[in-house]
Amino acid sequence: MEQRIAFRKVTFEDVEIIHKWMNEEHVHPYWNLNISLKAFKDHLAKALADTHQTLYLGLIDGRVMSYWEAYWVEGDIIEKYYSAAQADQGVHLLIGEKAFLGNGYALPLLRAMVHFQFQDEGTDKVIAEPDIRNEKMIHIFQKCGFNPVRPVKLPDKTGLLMFCERETFEKRWPYE
């Protein structure tokens, strides 16, 4: 039986589940947000007010299991690291619920989110900059259609800048 992928926008009421995920062993080395709940509430409030990004929770068959940040590169620190087009978008993600790890969910979820981002007709590129140590996610990004560009030293990590071009994505994953 095929499982249903969905996304819904994060609200401040989601703070406790996202905070819980930020403290998971498989998350905090890459996100560095294993901070107190009070500090995380401040962080999430700022993130929700940031108009260059939209936060989502990913669901499988209605069960909340992942966290997503879909953002416009313009206005983000990453725009300083390459020659960004005005409508380039970026994506950050984490699988929070341990029961969903290692079960093949990351690729279909990422595909669905990137497909959603390419619904903006001006967007020809979606970028990512996963932590360079996160080999599993780098592999998933590559399977989705992202190509490694170069390592980038960001304030909170060394990331691997990766590009997913619309044409490459649509050839790899034709939608009917």
From TrEMBL:
<dbReference type="Pfam" id="PF13523">
    <property type="entry name" value="Acetyltransf_8"/>
</dbReference>
<dbReference type="GO" id="GO:0046677">
    <property type="term" value="P:response to antibiotic"/>
</dbReference>
<comment type="pathway">
    <text>Siderophore biosynthesis.</text>
</comment>
<dbReference type="GO" id="GO:0019290">
    <property type="term" value="P:siderophore biosynthetic process"/>
</dbReference>
<dbReference type="InterPro" id="IPR016181">
    <property type="entry name" value="Acyl_CoA_acyltransferase"/>
</dbReference>
<feature type="domain" description="N-acetyltransferase">
    <location>
        <begin position="5"/>
        <end position="167"/>
    </location>
</feature>
<dbReference type="InterPro" id="IPR019432">
    <property type="entry name" value="Acyltransferase_MbtK/IucB-like"/>
</dbReference>
<dbReference type="GO" id="GO:0016410">
    <property type="term" value="F:N-acyltransferase activity"/>
</dbReference>
<keyword id="KW-0808">Transferase</keyword>
<comment type="function">
    <text>Acyltransferase required for the direct transfer of medium- to long-chain fatty acyl moieties from a carrier protein (MbtL) on to the epsilon-amino group of lysine residue in the mycobactin core.</text>
</comment>
<dbReference type="InterPro" id="IPR000182">
    <property type="entry name" value="GNAT_dom"/>
</dbReference>
<keyword id="KW-0046">Antibiotic resistance</keyword>
<protein>
    <recommendedName>
        <fullName>Lysine N-acyltransferase MbtK</fullName>
    </recommendedName>
</protein>
